[in-house]
Amino acid sequence: MSCPPVKELMDLWPALHMPAEVYAEFQRITNQNRPNTFYAQLDRHTPHLMALFIQKASKTGKTANALADIVKAHDAQELHDVHTRRTTVLHALPVYLREETSGFLRTCVDDTNEPDLRDAAVVLLTTITDDAESPVTYDP
Asked: Which domain of life, per UniProt (predicted)?
């Protein structure tokens, strides 16, 4: 059995372009709410991960400096709610693991066309209204 090309599959099922439809299909198949499950696990591990990142940021080196910048951006936020903690963890985790973040963490300006995401298996896409100075964009 051969698999159809992605474009053909997307043309056959346009609902795959809508996150709500993907989540509904995931829940139908697995009986789990995908976003809620993901965020629940992320929230469960966030305190330990934040402590780990802060500890690593206090050391020296390229990774420590990058983590220090992310932690500093987090500390500069006026509001420390669940969204800022999640954003910090999602930005710091690939840095801590020494993964290349340019392919995983992407930012686009909201007035541009849809970004080209064909070359990435998984992307955390942040849409902003203007160029941000911070290494982490806090806009849930």
From this structure: Eukaryota
- Is residue 25 in a domain? no
CA distance 103 to 105: 6
Q: What is the structure's pLDDT at 129?
A: 61
| Residue whose structure tokens are 């985790």 | 93
- Check whether residue 48 and residue 86 sit in a common domain: yes
Q: What is the mean pLDDT of residues 115-135?
A: 64
Residues 106 and 83 placed together within one structural domain of the fold: no
pLDDT (mean) for 60-65? 89
Q: How many domains does the chain have?
A: 2
Single pTM value for the model? 0.66
